Every structure is written in C-alpha cells, then in structure tokens.
Amino acid sequence: MFNPSHQPAILPNISGAHLPPLALPVDACYQGAVDCGIRAAQAFFNEDEAVSLHAHLPACLHHYLQLVRQACAVLEFSETVWQQHEQASRDAFCAGYLGRIQQELRSMRAPPPQHAAALH
Questions:
Q1: pLDDT digit string (tens) for 81-100?
Q2: Is residue 68 part of a domain?
Q3: CB-based contacts of 46: which residues, under 8 Å, 6+ apart?
C-alpha cells in the first residue's frame, strides 16, 4: 500500500510517446517490482498473438513471485518478512504491468485535439 509521505514508484514514459511519466500509488522501494511488471507487459506485446492477456499476467506474476520468494530464501529472510512484502510486491508488479499496457493503448491513439480557444 502507498503511504503519501513516501516517494512514489514511477512508470516511465514510452520512448517518443506524448505521455509523461506517471507516479504510481506504490512506494518507491518497490520500483524493482514495477520495472519487472513493465518488462513483462512489453513481452506480452511481443507474444500477444500466441497468448491472451488474462493468461499472460497471472503466469508472469506467479513466475515473478517465485523468483522473489527464492531470493528471500537464499538471503535467509524469515517467512514473516516474505509475507509482509508479498502483497506489496504483487501490487507493484501489477501496477507496472497494467500501467504499461495502458500506456501502449494510449500511445496508439493520436493526441487529443486542442480546443479552438486554446489555439488563439
């Protein structure tokens, strides 16, 4: 969960896109999970003809959480530490994944037209 007194994680803009980077409602200490979600979403766009979105996201999330759990075991973190961070890591991964999907969808559209009053 995001604490407004902390720094937010950032969803960087897509190269050349007209969309600015986006501050996510995720603590910056989970930026790595956000970044993994972004990379998984980018992989989806390479594989979208072979796999559906509703199958890709859970599979990627499961794989990511397995890797994090294994890293915690190697570093000898207790089960309690893992449980404290599992939901936040899950939320951060999904925020990065879904945020990148949304950015890609928005980048496929042209920028909204400016109002006539703004042109004068």
A1: 777 788 899 999 999 999 99
A2: yes
A3: none
Length of the chain: 120
pTM of the model: 0.80
Q: Rg for the chain (alpha carbons), in Å?
A: 17
Which residues partner with 22 through β-bridges?
11
Which whole number is the average pLDDT over 61-75? 87
Nearest to 39 by CA among 12, 9, 75: 12
Do the domain assignments include residue 119?
no
Is 118 within the bounds of a domain? no
Number of domains in the chain: 1
Domain that holds residue 69: 8-108
